[in-house]
Amino acid sequence: MPNVTISLDDELIKAGRRYAQEHKTSINAIIRDLLKKTVNSETNGWLEECFALMDRARGDSKGQIWKREDLYDV
Length: 74
Description:
The protein is mainly alpha-helical.
């Protein structure tokens, strides 16, 4: 498998290592999976369709400001 060199901010690398350790994986695996999902035409098409649906929804809050906790009130 060929190697690719990328440049990342030190803080991003530290956070990535913590995340990878917590999820029992590696930064390489995270980047590989993300790149695979990004370039995979099926996944990419699904994501584009989601954004198109959101754009067509034309939601209007009429100035209402929502707090995250309000969304869970029943």
